[in-house]
Amino acid sequence: MTLPSPLDGVDGPTALAAQAPHLRGCVPAPLGRRAAARGLDFLLGVLVGSIASLPLRSASSLSQVMSLGLVAQVVVIVFTVVVYVYFARTGYLPGGRLLGIRQVRLIDGASPGWAGFLKYLLIAVVGGVTLGIGYLVTVLLIRKPLNQAWHDRVTGLIVLDVRAGRDPATPAPPIDVSAAPSVPAISLVGLDEVKVPPTESDVPALWTSQAPDLGSSPVVGKPVLPPVSTPAAVSVVGGELGVITSVPGRRARTVEPSGAPETTVTPAVTSHVTPSAATPAPTEEPPATSGPVDGVEEVEDHTLLAPSPLSLGASGSLRALFADDGERINIDRVVIVGRNPTAPPGFPDARLVVLRDPSMSTSKTHAVLRPDPGGVWVMDLHSTNGSAVTTPSGIRTAVPAGGALVVASGGQLHLGRRSFHVIEA
């Protein structure tokens, strides 16, 4: 007999994922396997007690019986303490370890800790006062689909079958963020020819010319060229992050007097026409801009202004981190994360975010995060357990201590044992 639940009709893994997203992929332990694990625990206790009491059979006097009996009690008590300390730290009792039955906290998936002691203290008190009847009643009143007894609900624990599902100690499966739009990154290098159909708003009026279609007959007349003293028009957005979104000559439209087709323009070349015999070649051309812009460094597939130090201004490219425990962290500026972070030198005005980490796997001041055109930029601050990034395709790379990497939208960021999914803000 089990009590009805609002989640009746829903299978255990689905109900568990809905109630505790950080336990996605875990499976509540079935009652049969739980009973088998408890039976093994009972048999092990009987075996230890029997072995500890063997010397009593050879006692020849009352004083020896009392002394050996005291020794046997101490052995049993020490064994019990060791078992439950191990249980508090790992979630495994001996029978559960053999059968793959583990208990964790429902709120964060961590080991039981003191909640484990409280659970079995309640069981002992209720069972002792009622001569075992109360314990049998609690078993009969277990709630599905999570298979929680009243003492599980009181202490906030959940019993899992790690052989049938995921062990909470392993990373959770990624969240489906395929619906999130991707942000294209533009680099100044490698654009030999861009064949994307342009729009009139993509090219400043300065770069509009009356050149004919490439390969057509020459046009008589002096071509319209921008003044030499006029710098190339570059549109920069994103505040001090300096994300370059418009490159001169990347997408240009030529104006034809008779509606000629559009042309493909090489990025580093301004408006140019083939001179004819009647038209002298221009004596001066604007300088080509084939190399990187000053102050810009290449970072994989996007271009950023070199930070010195990283600015704290707003960015036009916002991301958020969705944590494995359901926490959401907006990365709308430079953020310092850790168990109890403080602003390191160079980031005096950064936003400080305290990470919930019962396992203590993250450092006090673990990493620096900031928005990036392709995702989230992360710098590891020489943390104890390190940082890593995982691409949307599943390739994991460790962030060097004191170094930085970019985790793309749809990928994962790992800080110690904590995992975060990079999504659109």
Automatic annotation (TrEMBL):
Residues 261-273 have a biased composition (Polar residues). The keyword Cytoplasm does not apply. InterPro entries: FHA_dom, RDD, SMAD_FHA_dom_sf. Residues 335-390 form the FHA domain. GO terms for cellular component: membrane. It is found in: Membrane. PROSITE patterns: FHA_DOMAIN (PS50006). Residues 248-295 are annotated as: Disordered. Its main location: membrane. The chain crosses the membrane at residues 68-87, 120-142. Residues 274-290 have a biased composition (Low complexity). It is a multi-pass membrane protein. Keywords: Membrane, Phosphoprotein, Transmembrane, Transmembrane helix. The keyword Transmembrane applies. Pfam families: FHA, RDD. This is RDD family protein. The lineage of its organism: Bacteria, Bacillati, Actinomycetota, Actinomycetes, Micrococcales.
